[in-house]
Amino acid sequence: MELFLATQEGDENKALPSVVSPSHFLQTDFWASFKEAHGWKSLRVQGRYNPATYLDTWTGLKTAGFTCSILTRTFSLPLVGRVSLAYIPMGLELPENPEIMAESKLYGKILSDFSYNLRRFLNKNTLCIRFDIPIDLLSLEEREAYRKTIPCRFAPDNIQPPDTVLVDLTATEDEILGRMKSKWRYNIRLAEKKGVEVRRGAAKDIEIFYDLYKTTSRRDGIAIHNKEYYLDLLERGQSVASKDTRVDLYIASYQGEPLAAIITLFAGVEAVYLYGASSNSHRNLMPAYLLQWVAIKDARAAGCKVYDMYGIPPTDDEGHPMHGLYRFKTGFGGKIVHRPGSLDIPLSPLYGFYVLGERGRNFWYKRVKKLLVGR
Prior knowledge:
Blueprint: E1 2-5, H1 29-36, E2 41-49, E3 64-77, E4 81-89, H2 98-102, H3 104-118, E5 126-132, H4 140-149, E6 153-154, E7 163-168, H5 173-179, H6 182-193, E8 197-201, H7 206-220, H8 227-237, E9 245-254, E10 257-267, E11 270-278, H9 287-301, E12 306-308, H10 323-330, E13 335-338, E14 342-346, H11 351-374
Parallel strand pairs: 4-5, 11-12
Antiparallel strand pairs: 1-2, 2-3, 3-4, 5-14, 6-14, 7-12, 7-13, 8-9, 9-10, 10-11
Helix pairs in contact: 6-9
């Protein structure tokens, strides 16, 4: 395998057989630029490899290509000093050889080879390369089998939600509605009938969204970014310079009072429901249902093929603290997929100490702090 920076020029021998656009928004230049403004650095590499190295039955071209966006972050560890982490969200994607990705042992081998070659572009003090791999599996049993056989270490916690719902937008609006649970269709009609109004907001409406989001954070015990983070996302996503990605804010109101809001990103063939917020008032008017329906229709009109609800609990477990989220998102009639989760390729002997620190941090924020919020 050979890697080189995508910005390198002047070497004809490094030309790829093809350059394929990323299929997930987390691999776009838009997202890399946005994250650079919030504490990360980014680089994009191009690579080529011989599929026959991994597939004995391969009889096609000797060279296949890919591109990959990598985010890096440098921080301090107690008693250690400055270290770095490399993160590859929804990568490495092999658009010409999805069969390699489907075979966990083969894919693990190519991730390892990729990581070995990537090291020269990273800081010497990089602890590991962390991946959220773009594999969609249709059952928990498939995911467990994939996780057991891929030769990589799984991270203490997932960065991206491993379980989600994908709504097919290639159908007609009537077909999409028909796939929803009947109660969901009823709630959409109820919100419209009762006078809930949905409008597309601008960046100047960030105060409305953030006030609702703070209410949601207190009610559900979730962590949120500062207001400037969401403002920057909206400003970038609504800029005329952002040709391939659009970010919209939708606000649902009743008699002038904002009840709920969502932020949805449109990138190529996918639309993604990133953030949702709601007040504690007039919840019986079902504004969240109408918000999603308006965003789904807009995504379909924009040419998107799928609407990603982006994050649910793994099962329909009534004891799960986010069970309500599972019921809400699955009711829109999408396909439930299970991704393997975040995995690591360690690069430093200090990796083990970092993992211990991560586990302690996760315990504090996801267990202790949530309990304190609920008191």
